[in-house]
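PROTEIN DESIGN WORKSHEET
SECTION A - STRUCTURE
LENGTH: 239
TOKENS:
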């Protein structure tokens, strides 16, 4: 069980950080709004076909990059929300930003994990909602599905840390697929908790997969400028 006080303080800290980010994001959005506004909608439309699309021309035929991000699963305002970062004039979910960097580098195929749950756009409400969802052990219904997992040997899996853990939807994800014989490479975005032990959790959920414990992690605040760190991490892993 979570200690209510600890949870409150952590929530407050996360909230303060995201509020600060909102202020910065708003300033950036004011300059860039004509180009940033459509992006999450496009991403949602892209995922709506419920399948991963064809391989990138840069290689990575057997690499899938699956990610979950609040911005594609809530009623957030694509421009002003604290749940987005702006990379190259494009607003996107924080986990999505890192997923895109991995895709650019590896040529792997992107897959947005989405759920029928529409998470609250309001940060305070979201924090409370997620705490209750975790305490109840809910497994949110997935609305996007990997068409043919056999195509992939390596699956990067990224998500935000929510209450020191994976979002519940990631438990749905690992419940749906058997990654036996594949390599899973986790990456997270956070506000201080880093990987928060999630690679070990994934290994428990997928005992017959090889789960790389040296996952990539970056704070929400530094995610937009993480491309070089992502590249160095991938180099270290041989990608
Ligand atoms: C409900 C909720 C719980 C969170 N809990 C934590 C936490 O326990 N530790 C942490 O470092 N960050 C926490 N955060 C901050 C997120 O991990 C961070 O803002 C992340 O960049 C959001 O990524 P996204 O935009 O891809 O959803 C939390 C955020 C939310 C909304």
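SECTION B - SEQUENCE
RESIDUE ASSIGNMENT:
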């Amino acid at each position: 069980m979570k200690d209510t006080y600890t949870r409150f303080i952590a929530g407050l800290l996360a909230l303060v950080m995201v509020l600060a980010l909102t202020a910065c994001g708003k300033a950036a959005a004011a300059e860039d709004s004509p180009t940033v506004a459509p992006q999450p909608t496009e991403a949602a439309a892209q995922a709506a076909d419920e399948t991963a699309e064809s391989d990138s021309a840069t290689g990575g035929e057997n690499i899938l990059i699956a990610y979950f991000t609040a911005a594609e699963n809530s009623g957030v305002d694509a421009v002003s929300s604290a749940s987005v970062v702006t990379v190259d004039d494009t607003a996107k979910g924080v986990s999505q930003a890192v997923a895109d960097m991995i895709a650019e580098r590896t040529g792997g195929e992107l897959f947005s994990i989405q759920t029928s749950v529409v998470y609250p756009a309001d940060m305070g409400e979201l924090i409370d909602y997620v705490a209750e969802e975790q305490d109840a052990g809910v497994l949110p219904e997935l609305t996007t599905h990997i068409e043919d997992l056999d195509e992939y040997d390596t699956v990067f899996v990224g998500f935000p840390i929510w209450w020191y853990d994976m979002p519940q939807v990631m438990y749905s994800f690992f419940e749906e697929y058997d990654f036996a014989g594949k390599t899973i490479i986790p990456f997270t975005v956070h506000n201080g908790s880093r990987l928060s032990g999630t690679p070990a959790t994934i290994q428990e959920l997928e005992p017959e997969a090889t789960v790389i414990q040296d996952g990539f992690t970056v704070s929400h605040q530094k995610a937009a400028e993480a491309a070089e760190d992502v590249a160095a991490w991938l180099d270290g892993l041989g990608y």
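SECTION C - NOTES
The chain has seven helices and eight strands.
The pocket of flavin mononucleotide is lined by residues 10, 14, 18, 69-71, 83, 93-95, 126-127, 130, 160-164, 189-193, 220 (CB under 6 Å).
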